[in-house]
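Class, carefully examine what follows:
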Amino acid sequence: MHRYRSHTCGELRDSHIGETVRLSGWVHRIRDHGGVLFIDLRDHYGLTQVVADPDSPAFKDAETLHAEWVIKVDGKVRRRPAGTENPDLPTGAVEVYIDSIEVLGPAAELPMPVFGDQEYPEEIRLKYRFLDLRRERLHQNIIKRGQIIDSIRRRMKDQGFFEFQTPILTASSPEGARDFLVPSRLHPGKFYALPQAPQQFKQLTMIAGFDRYFQIAPCFRDEDARADRSPGEFYQLDVEMSFVTQDDVFAAIEPVMRGTFEEFANGKPVTQTFPLIPYRDALRKYGTDKPDLRNPIEMQDVSEAFRGSGFKIFANILAASPKHEVWAIPAPGGGNRAFADRMNSWAQGEGQPGLGYIFWREGEEGGAGPLAKNIGPERTRQIADQLGLGVGDACFFVAGEPATFVKFAGPARTKVGEELGLIQKDKFEFCWIVDFPMFEWSEEEKKIDFSHNPFSMPNIEPEKFLALDPNDKDTLLSLKAIQYDIVCNGIELSSGAIRNHRPDVMKKAFAIAGYPEDVLEQKFGGMLRALSYGAPPHGGIAPGIDRIVMLLCGEENLREVVLFPMNQRAEDLLMGAPSEVTAKQLRELHIRVVKPE
């Protein structure tokens, strides 16, 4: 028999009854029932109940055991007594009567228990992450993470994508988030950078003549932590394709996302055909370019119902500028004053003066509330008809310049959906956000600048773009780029684009944004040179692995699906990173530390 085990702790079934077996694992839980010790023995594969009574030669040893000790037991498999079976366990029909116990690794007093799923302070969980990872929910999350990555990798290869590995030590990028820098010992005063993404490398791979690239790529960004973004490092499904349009990218990625989610969604519905929502429509309907389509609420412009009306606050706002509008946030089922007042109080807590509302109730002409009285029943009916609202419903309003109030309108839509229970939680709703603006007006610098990704292709013919007047502000601000995001349940999984593969178009785009050619050459000379030697039209995308796993595990924080995460201050409490280094190491790297005063 093997030194440590003949079977795993998740393997024994009825068919093993009568066999002598050897198991090794952790003592998960000990229960003393009238002098009979029941021990749940756990390993990576599952849990088996092992039993010692006073007649067992191992009873005295069993009495010395404590939680999380690592032990080896020998014994005979037997059927559990009638009524004590555990149908929730694959091994729940049997138990092992112990003949001998060997302690392989005793455990000190635990700083946190492994049994159960109670919450513990993050500092303790991360410092003792190896214990945290023994807990069932987290352990299963990490296993599922590996299975999801395997599924994605298989689906990519089935579509003809080839897996590449790109450098980890590279050059610092002048754009994007802060780089993590690595000092060079051989080149004093010079630094490598860890890649924020393999963006330039994957484009160079296309220019080098390869066709379909993918990589489960580690990315490094020195930025603050968020619930949906790990500090320091994260992984993405990095993809690039040659000779493709936007639709080709969608056709490649959509089946991978849909198939992976269906495989791990536990029966929850997954969007079959991802709708394409223009960026401008997403802001107007949902107040965000990351809409949660599980929430059925769609906002609408109801400016005409208030223009010149008796509600002077909104009427004056509309008269003050042609850019000003009034948007309605419908609230089906919210037609009572208590809910309206609650939303108004929430808005004030968000720093707003309030949240105007109308609600409709039985036997009342028009609607109820201060706004309804000021604008009259005809305009109130106009709003109800436009939004499809009636008795028992309500509506909230925001007014001003949409570019400003949209940051409040989006969360208000979400709040209404949550409060009224309208959000269908048990489904995965995908969409593509498309037609992002190429340029935007920088009020601070009083000039046109790039709106999102400066290396995207404009969504017009290259010759038409090259012929544009750089002083025609209105035309330039109406330009769209071939950029797209993939969004699921209100979480942005990825941004992507068809790349600007023509040096003349790139130079023109940067010139419009106020970057002269010498600056472009200085910052992106390598990419510019590569594009000048025959670059194919190419594009790609990079869905975030951590966010995909977070959604499929039903978690709200990435730290629940990452093996060894950092805390919010980008500290690894388990390994003690970042840490100070010796004077000798600093001398070898030609570095002197200057600490802040």
Notes: Residues 184 and 190 are 6 Å apart (CA to CA). The chain is about 30% helix and 20% strand. The mean pLDDT is 94.
